[in-house]
Amino acid sequence: MTASKTLLSPTTLYQHGTLALLVPGLLAGTITMGELLKHGDTGIGTGEGLDGELIILDGVPYQVTSDGKVTVVDDDFTMPFVTVHQAAFKKLVNVSDTNQFMLEQQVLQEAAAQNTFFSIEVTGTFTHVKTRAVEKSVEPYHTLAQTARNQGLFEKDDVRGTLVSYYSPEIFDGAAVGGFHHHFISDDHDFGGHVLSFHVDQATVGLQVFDTLEQHLPTKNKPYMDHDFSDDQITETIRAAEK
């Protein structure tokens, strides 16, 4: 799988679609993986119909499906929502024996960047990770709340891997998840997904801060262009689905 070298600065975050468009069930894939990888080599997202969970590392797009299988998707794989950037992480801190809440609070304190977008990469050993992956919906698509009910839950102890996370300021809640959004992939590529909880044994945290958000919208998708979002309970639905 190849892609043209990105023209984006390492301080630019590229996002296709928004979380808000998933709420009413606008789940059609509107960008291909081949096109996406022109904009970055690291990221997270989901496939058409909320087809599992994606984590992109070193330009390789891994998909965790609702049955727990991990595969590498092709260039023609499509997505309604995905975020990527060109990795240029700088070491922030080493952590040990810490849970998700404690790590998030430490990162916020050390990074001092809560009013902008940033990404963290946590690499090392985890004493426990709990993930999920949503089952693919087909047309006519269900809403986000309905689709999120059908998901596989997975847990693993003593696993070595990488957590890729994005932090979005609360004022952008709806465009993305306000706060942290974590995905995980094990080093042996047999476990991962959207992270529900984790506990770190020993790991290194890398930080990359963005000063620019490049937001790409699916303007060629008629259902998106015609939809009225005013009656959608966007924030409440996203918060419930992301738990």
TrEMBL record:
InterPro entries in the cross-refs: Acetolactate_a_deCO2ase
One of the record's GO molecular function terms: acetolactate decarboxylase activity
CDD domains to which the protein is assigned, alphabetical: acetolactate_decarboxylase
Lyase found in the keyword field: yes
Keywords attached to this entry: Acetoin biosynthesis, Decarboxylase, Lyase
NCBIfam families hit by this protein: acetolac_decarb
Name the UniProt record assigns to this protein: Alpha-acetolactate decarboxylase
UniProt source species: Secundilactobacillus similis DSM 23365 = JCM 2765
